[in-house]
Specification:
This protein is mainly α. The protein has helices at residues 3-14, 23-31, 38-46, 49-58, 63-77. The chain has one domain (3-77). The protein is 65% helix and 0% strand.
Length: 85
């Protein structure tokens, strides 16, 4: 994952919110299935799937863990999520 790609992801997920997450905080929230955190929802719905996968890989989040978080978010929010199993 390039620094440019990481910056684009963080810009996308943080833009509408007053609280800004850095990459480590976003990765922790995803790995802990913190689906009620607004930035996690933005990550799963507004970030391209290939970027989600690259980000997860760069931060040691397994594909199955990313899919589990996506599925939990989709079930909780009712929003379609590409990586939801």
């Amino acid at each position: 994952m390039t620094k440019t790609m990481q910056t684009a992801i963080l810009t996308t997920v943080n833009a509408p919110y007053q609280t800004m997450l850095d990459a480590d905080a976003l990765a922790l929230a995803i790995s802990q299935h913190d689906i009620k955190l607004a930035q996690v929802g933005s990550f799963l719905t507004e970030t391209p799937v290939d970027a989600q996968i690259a980000f997860a890989e760069a931060f040691g989040i397994s594909p199955s863990e990313l899919a589990a978080t996506a599925t939990e978010f989709a079930n909780w929010s009712g929003q379609p999520v590409a990586l939801a199993a």
